[in-house]
Amino acid sequence: MTDAAADPLRAAADPLRAAADTMRAVRDRCVWSQQIDHRALVPYLVEEAAELIDAVEGGTRAELREELGDLLWQVLFHAEIASRDEAEPFGIDDVARGLTEKMVRRHPHVFGDAVARTPEEVLVHWNAAKAAEKSARTSVLDGVSPHMPALALAQKMLGKAAQARVPAPPVADGAEPVLADESALGDALLALVATARAQGWDAERALRERLRILEAEIRETEASSAT
């Protein structure tokens, strides 16, 4: 073996390259890895992302480091699969190169002459660069994945609704004094789920159905604005 996975000195000098070479060796020599494609890897990607969230929110530093590595392995795995595609191959170097170029574009206050003294000003530059990159998109909802968990999707879509100038749903009466912090919000959300369960309702489905209504409102507003 001549790859970085079998060369401790090279691995120490360039551990990311060693990880990529290790992935290549696994793909070449492991019969399980050889038959996996992008779609078959998705459940593992979801699982590793969830475990990383657990480590961020309640794990040790060692657990966080390990879970970051496991998620990186998923990126390397997908890139290695992609590198062998007959029609449109690309590898981890292409992924990294594209990421670097995008981050440079979206941080003109770091790599260019733009100025950003507050987080809000940074966001203006970020959104402007992103809008230029995604100029072919026709809706603020383009690029929003429907596979996100319902609560995360709801928070994302409310932000998109604000961009489209669609009125946000009213805040529940008395919510402001009761929900003093995120812990109280968690209690309130759990209470709502408990209510749904007691009534025989599906809380996830209820929120998704309401989000479909919000999606229709956003698209209707966009269509009206375009005419």
TrEMBL record:
Show the InterPro entries listed in the entry.
Answer: MazG-like_dom, NTP-PPase_MazG-like_N, NTP_PyrPHydrolase_MazG
Q: Which Pfam families match?
A: MazG
GO MF terms, alphabetically ordered: nucleoside triphosphate diphosphatase activity
Q: Which residues form the NTP pyrophosphohydrolase MazG-like domain?
A: 38-111
Q: What is this protein called?
A: MazG family protein
Which Gene Ontology terms describe the biological processes this protein takes part in? Answer: dATP catabolic process; dGTP catabolic process; dTTP catabolic process; dUTP catabolic process; TTP catabolic process; UTP catabolic process
Query: Where exactly are the transmembrane stretches of this chain?
Result: none
* Species of the source: Microbacterium saccharophilum
